[in-house]
Amino acid sequence: MQKYDLSKSYVKEVNSNIALETDQLSVFYGKKQATYDISLKIPKHSITALIGASGSGKSTYLRSLNRMNENGNTNVKGKIIYEGIDINSSKVNVYEVRKHIGMVFQEPNPFAKSIRGNITFALKNHGIKDKKVLEERVVSSLKQAAIWDEVKDHLDDSAMSLSGGQKQRLCIARAIAMQPDILLLDEPTSALDPVSTGKIEETLRELKKNYTIIIVTHNIQQASRVSDYTAFMHSGHLLEYNDTNSIFNNPEMQITNDYISGHFG
Amino acid sequence: MNPKSVNRIATTVINSLVGVVVALLVLLISYILVTGLPHMSLDFLLSPSQSYQAGGGIRDQLFNSIYLVILTLIISFPIALGAGIYLAEYAPKNWIVDVIRTLIEVLSSLPSVVVGLFAYLVFVIKFQVGFSIISGAVALTIFNLPLLTRNIEDSIKSVPDFQMQGALALGLSKWTTIIKIIFPSAIPGIITGIILSSGRIFGEAAALIYTSGQSAPVLNYANWNPFSPDSFLNPMRPAETLAVHIWKVNSEGITPDANAISSGASAVLILVIILFNFFAHWIGKKLYKKFTVGEVK
């Protein structure tokens, strides 16, 4: 593989309606630096894809955005600006942040509860007691995650009995039942078959009308299919950020071109 | 040798080893049951023991054993739960915690006679609690704790980490997640640990001889006041358990039917342990279902 100059990058200036912005975000695992000064503006009500080879730091970056990287010796430096506040500050209540910025993981991880219980569990713990409200959230979130028709007749069955794709859509429903602004998706379809993947992509296209979505994916075609903006990362550096069309048809950087045409990664 | 015959030899060896274990188990249990069951009758179960005459039963000893298991679990389970949760979820990875883990393992392998004598000196003599169920329960807690703590730690650790991640990402605190998501998922494993440790409590004799004592005063099963000296619920009374009774009848029993009593009591002990296992599994399934609406794996 040829050597690339990681100090050069192309980041398109996006100025319309920013949902989330990072300013020189660097993540350290102990002494090892995983991402380098990433500054990125994520536009509202759109899908932004983070692509790059394994070890490029894209998942690490994503997990910093709702502060899921806070354990042990992980250290996140820089600013994450959401609604004018730096939510990376230690003064900010991390639990509150996660209510506004939801997350769906690579491995579908429903709780060992009923389908309904998966949706209502967090809501109840956040103090929503009204049965009517809870029921409304269950229905609307399952509908938005496009799984309502498949589960409406057995909401009290265990979520563990669902298929992998259904589980993942339930996890999406669980996240949007919290009524967040932003949804972070960490390779949400990499454990799923093509049919389930298609359904989830369809769901995401619907969801972006109301939510800002950031998705990490290994699947370059998926990024080109669903996203409006694409950020390409390599070795912890953000090397190109542009609207998806430009990235895939006319990339500014040689390395981006090489990655999306399959020369490495 | 080709892979096929290697595999065949290995399988044969493993199978015969399993055979030895099973044969031993079957032999032992059936010997105890065959020699014991003929002496087991409702009268045997429901009448108090006799010191000199034939025809004594094991009513009080049987009750004492069960009561002691329950008391010990009431004392040790909450402590073990706290320690297990700490070790599984909160303990930092450093040498102090490693030392604590090692100490816990050492504690679990202490000879029960030593633990019994220790509890005798501290509780029975020093604190003047006297021979009592509560002294016995505390002594049993000392070697029940390490087993139970280790078991709870392992059960909690075996719950996949992405369950924790999922709950944290919904803005829930770590503590809420542990209590409401992780712990319920760990229940089946924890129940197994409780069963194993109760089996040990049921069968323990050495540590109890010095702590809960070797006498079974007449109990009044109609007296529900735990502070009354003759109440069956009074934890401060001396209480000979089934295992201690078997030991005593065998070593210094002077009743003419000492042999029959010890065989019968042994069979009862085994049956009680088996019944306790079924009961604990049943409760565990109910709890797991109640918390998770899932089937036990």
Automatic annotation (TrEMBL), chain B:
Cleaved signal peptide residues: none
SUPFAM superfamilies given in the database record: MetI-like
Localization: Cell membrane
TM ranges: 12-34, 66-87, 99-123, 129-148, 181-202, 260-280
Residue ranges constituting the ABC transmembrane type-1 domain according to the UniProt record: 62-280
Pfam families in UniProt: BPD_transp_1
InterPro entries xrefs: MetI-like (IPR000515), MetI-like_sf (IPR035906), Phosphate_PstA (IPR005672)
Membrane-related topology note: Multi-pass membrane protein
Entry keywords, A to Z: Cell membrane, Membrane, Transmembrane, Transmembrane helix, Transport
Entry's family note: Belongs to the binding-protein-dependent transport system permease family. CysTW subfamily.
NCBIfam families listed in its UniProt record: 3a0107s02c (TIGR00974)
Name of protein: Phosphate transport system permease protein PstA
Taxonomic source organism: Apilactobacillus xinyiensis
